Amino acid sequence: MKTRITELFGIEHPIIQGGMHFVGLAELAAAVSNAGGLGTITGLTQGTPEKLAAEIARCNDLTDKPFAVNLTFLPSFSEPPYAEYIDAIIAGGVRIVETAGRNPEKWMPKMKDAGIKVIHKCTSVRHSLKAEAIGCDAVSVDGFECGGHPGEDDVPNMILLPRAADELTIPFVASGGQADARSLVASLAMGAEGINMGTRFIATKEAPVHQNVKDAIVKASELDTRLVMRPLRNTERVLDNKAVDEILAIEREKGADLKITDILEQVAGVYPKIMQEGEMDAGAWSCGMVAGLIDDVPTVKELVDRIMKEADEIIAGRLAGMRSA
Ligand SMILES: Cc1cc2nc3c(=O)[nH]c(=O)nc-3n(C[C@H](O)[C@H](O)[C@H](O)COP(=O)(O)O)c2cc1C
Questions:
Q1: Residue 148 pairs with which residues in a beta bridge?
Q2: Residue 75: band (very low, low, confident or very high) from pLDDT cuts 50, 70, 90
Q3: Fewer CB under 10 Å: which end of the chain, C or N?
Q4: Alpha helices per DSSP H over the chain
Q5: Which domain of life is it from (predicted)?
Q6: Atom of ligand 1 nearest to the CA of 100
Q7: What is the DSSP letter of 77?
Q8: What is the model's pTM?
Q9: Buried (b) or exposed (e) across 136-146, using 16+ Cβ within 10 A?
Q10: CA of 151 to the centre of ligand 1 (A)
């Protein structure tokens, strides 16, 4: 399949693995890139630019295909050294960056001067247009159903993708709720030129997380995610668990007075415990509604090959067969 996204990134299949805190390590990024998609190392998970440089080197050992690094610009108490992270990306020979969170405008000249292609992940048409205006090469349009931060507009992809297609000139991929060939073909029909998957890639053999996390995703239905931190305008879609029930109880009690410090225990520094130790109630962790469509743990290559094969069957078989002569 050839789209503006496969051409832009020099990849075989229009399938991207989005940055994921404590999941997007070299093993997963390389597996996705080796399968013909675009894998992504999550920059801030590494903790320092030096450690990111080492992780990029590890990924370069595991694949000779292109891969990306995610840089997330979220509100934080002390700003990470983004300039140094970008230096590590450039020095490591990575030429694709997935930005997310706040507007990456400040960092665009540094990245563009180094020949980096930037795909910005955002949750609205207005933010997509802003990304286009500041020189991003593509956008990842993240619908309300997505795992992680869906923004505050609550527009699902069935509306958001055609709206983005109506307004954007640069290519975009559909993000949020993408699991299989049906997702890919539907997203292409709505104007996207590929898909970005998060939750689906966690439930793969190569994802470097505890088996409990994969089992939880397979077990979950589309009814099992919750939105937390809405009163802070930092909404996150997470898998329901004991910690999430506590957060929601605190949110109900505090109402508009909620502060991040009220729920710090349930959200701060919990990812290593969940992703590495498999302590599934240790805190809130991002997960998409798409969990309801995930019921196996294939290898990344099996997953990507299956999506591409079945997409062809849908397009050339099912859809073509519906056309009246
Ligand atoms: C466990 C987890 C951690 C994530 N961490 C990040 C992150 O650090 N930075 C980021 O930009 N997006 C992050 N995301 C969002 C994904 O990159 C992707 O946009 C999202 O998962 C797409 O929705 P889906 O889960 O329905 O596929 C995370 C998602 C999950 C499930």
A1: 237
A2: confident
A3: C
A4: 4-9, 26-34, 49-62, 82-91, 108-113, 125-133, 157-167, 181-189, 199-202, 211-219, 242-254, 264-267, 271, 300-313, 320-322
A5: Bacteria
A6: 11
A7: S
A8: 0.98
A9: bbbbbbbbbbb
A10: 12
Give the closest residue (by CA) to ligand 1 atom 5: 20
199 closest CA partner among 34, 10, 28, 26: 28
* Phi, psi for residue 199 in degrees, rounded to 5: -50, -45
Measured in degrees and rounded to the nearest 5, phi and psi for residue 72 equal -100, 125
Q: Which atom of ligand 1 is nearest to the CA of 142?
A: 19
Domains and CATH numbers, the chain: 4-208 (3.20.20.70), 212-289 (no CATH)
Q: Round to whole Å and give the CA distance between 193 and 195.
A: 7
Whether the CB-CB separation of 139 and 128 falls below 8 Å is answered with yes
Say if residues 176 and 143 touch (Cβ distance below 8 Å).
yes
- Å from CA of 121 to ligand 1 middle: 10
pLDDT in tens, 93-125: 999 999 999 999 999 999 999 999 999 999 999
Cα 209 to averaged position of ligand 1 atoms, centre (Å): 14
Strand, coil or helix: 195: strand
Ligand 1 centroid–CA 318 distance in Å is 31
Q: Report how far ligand 1's centroid is from the alpha carbon of 12 (Å).
A: 22
Nearest CA to ligand 1 atom 7: 20
Tell which one of 200, 286, 289, 293 to mutate to probe ligand 1, the residue whose CB is within 8 A of the most ligand atoms.
286
Q: Contact 68/15 with Cβ under 8 angstroms?
A: no
Helix (H) or strand (E) holding 144: none
